[in-house]
Amino acid sequence: MKESRYIIASDGVRLRTAVFTHGSRGQGRGVCVLLTGQTEFIEKYEEVIGELCARGFSVAALDWRGQGGSARLLPNPLKAHIDDFAQYDDDLTSFMQQIVQPLSAKPPLALAHSMGAHILLRALHDRPMQFAAAVLSAPMLRAQTRGYPAWFARALTFVQARTGRKSAWVLGMDKRDPLTMEFSDQLVTSDRARYARAKALVTGHPELRLAGPTWGWLEAGYSSMNRVMAPGYAEAIPTPVLICGAGQDRIVDTQAEREFVKRLPHGTYLELRESEHEILMEADAIRQQFWKAFDEFVASTLPWEGRKIQERSE
Which residue among 175, 179, 282, 308 is buried most deeply as judged by most CB within 10 Å? Predict the structure, then answer.
């Protein structure tokens, strides 16, 4: 059963949320908080939500400010923009307080992708008791610059953001409208059918789509990535975390994920060697590897899952 609701963040921004309940409210294995990546929206994850519900979880999801069905921040609704990633922190805090916490007394599990996984890491650091465990798909820790030296991309972003071009497109992003982009032009999945399904969703609901980021978004992203990758940051996250990296990722740097997980006190890593960036939108064989790792991690990590395992073995 799906329940959609709009909430208001503390700074007045309107956010779209949805809850998919498994059986009676409060029953099952608890709540899984689903946090999507940049440009994404709740409907894109209908298959994933169904798989989580089939595993006994209720699912709570939101559209971040500036994307999906939430309020857009610029006159051009195709631009992904933010001034500071602290604004995303506010989205998550408002979502947790208004939607997630009333659902269950158990601390929730989190499943997050890319930008959503990055924002989740900020929460795991700043509010460490909020989640029981977290599964991260291709977290945004260091950006791929696709042919440009990393120092040049960083310097260019800095200059553009500080010379009055914060709301301007990053180079080439105005050409990446999901309505017109062909499979051969995209960089996130090897699965044609799932890509076609996502494209059909934005064709039917074009108001949900985004093309790409502004210089302001990218500058805020670099600043936040520097913070999260700084010495001592990962080491201060006590929550059990499974990071799944994509071996063929062309959006974020998989090596950064390998480095980061080694610094986590309770970190586990799985690399899906054949996967492009969107692991959960990938081919069946890749997704099966992901779900196997997910199931094993959850069963061994959540306190109440451990008790169930013990009961079955007695």
Answer: 282
**What average pLDDT does the chain have?**
94
- Model confidence over 215-242: pLDDT tens digits? 999 999 999 999 999 999 999 999 999 9
CA nearest to 46, candidates 31, 37, 34? 34
Please give the Cα distance from 53 to 9 (Å, whole number).
Answer: 27
Please state, as a whole number, how many other Cβ atoms lie within 10 Å of the Cβ of residue 38. Answer: 21
Give the Cα separation of 165 and 309 in Å (integer): 55
133-137 β-sheet, strand order? 2-8, 14-20, 58-62, 31-35, 109-113, 133-137, 241-246, 267-272
The answer to whether the beta carbons of residues 246 and 275 sit under 8 Å apart is yes
- Using only C-alpha atoms, the chain has a radius of gyration, in whole angstroms, of 19
Helical (H) or strand (E) element with 263: helix 254-263
Closest residue by Cα to residue 237 from 198, 206, 266, 207: 266
Classified by CATH at the fold level, domain 2-313 comes out as Rossmann fold (3.40.50)
Does the pLDDT of residue 312 top 70, yes or no?
no
pLDDT at 2: 83
Model pLDDT for residues 184-207, shown as the tens digit of each residue: 999 999 999 999 999 999 999 999
- b/e for 169-184, b at 16 or more Cβ within 10 A? bbeebeebebeebeee
**DSSP element (H, E) containing 292:** helix 284-301
